[in-house]
């Protein structure tokens, strides 16, 4: 039976391709996620013996692990073999929320307000011990599933210690690590306690290859290794700039459910005397690094400085929930809502809602917004890549001008045809929004075409295969 064979390709990530919800009647419902990894992995085809190792995230997942022993029913996973780890809830919460999403995410995205934080005390050390235990659980499961000389692709900051731990257990494996986030500059990385900073770097250097989304993040990692460890040793450093999946997006964006959402949005946006309003579109998970509030402040400044835009433009902002277990994320979501309300009550008129904000996740509605975007606003404080910047030019119907933060990884590939902003500079962002709204049609069309070509240069399947080939050839 296939499910008992040792795997030749393994993927490890905190969040797996499937998750379960537990109904009141005890029934489990499975839902499948999308994203670059899911479609990337599909490139190797069903015949390759591949396993995806992930963590149980909530109660539904834990129940599925209890019922199956962790090897999920392939009927729930689209045929993919998945090994889900039932890590004890306290250990998981400390590792995921207490270290990965607080400390490591904050360090790589430069999010601390340093007069008061971080403060690495004994509570932090206790959470760190959980992070180690959680990484160890992954390393042991991978060691257990992997066939001789198998290739293992480990994802992200959650699992930074896994390559080193796995190397110790299974020296025969080819191990890769991929960071989907930025990497912190040396001085900022050194906020971490010295021993932990070194442990993280050594963990990743346990891999044969450590790869990143852009040269900038790869160079930052190398600089940290040089400063703290004297170099990167035998680990190769790679760059693979994940691109948008054009075929999937174009097909998905034209299905009836998206048409329906488009009609609803058009209705909501409206326009004086039947002339449709211009749109500034943003779609984000409400992460602190996305800079949604400064984006709205820039829009407010546009309406103040250039009253000619009042009634003629709408800011369509989708800010979907993320990591709501952490108070700082909940507070940020509330602030986004407040600023949108303030703008609407200051400038709104009976026929015009200046900010149309949606906070409930709806992929079809996101695609509808992509279709009608005149301007795409992507202004993160710092971002590993930002796929929205790549997706909107592919899907937008009439071409869109892209206002893009120079701190997004996507800037490396899209910067030439975007209107580039410093994400902290609200006034400059307001000026860029005006420039984007007034860009002439030919320029806008030509830029959109080049943006879409650059954005789709490395589709998810190629992105995945390139990594696998580089790892095997290394
Ligand atoms: C973002 C990052 C990824 C990360 C993911 C985790 O999308 O770009 O690097 O893996 O967040 O999000 P989660 O919802 O699982 O905490």
From TrEMBL:
GO terms (molecular function) for this protein are: alpha,alpha-trehalose-phosphate synthase (UDP-forming) activity; trehalose-phosphatase activity
Organism the protein comes from: Streptomyces niveus (Streptomyces spheroides)
Question: Record's family?
Answer: Belongs to the glycosyltransferase 20 family.
Put simply, this protein is called: Trehalose-6-phosphate synthase
What Gene Ontology biological process does one annotation of this record name? trehalose biosynthetic process
Give the highest taxon in the source lineage.
Bacteria
Looking up InterPro entries in the UniProt record yields: Glyco_trans_20
GO CC aspect terms: cytosol
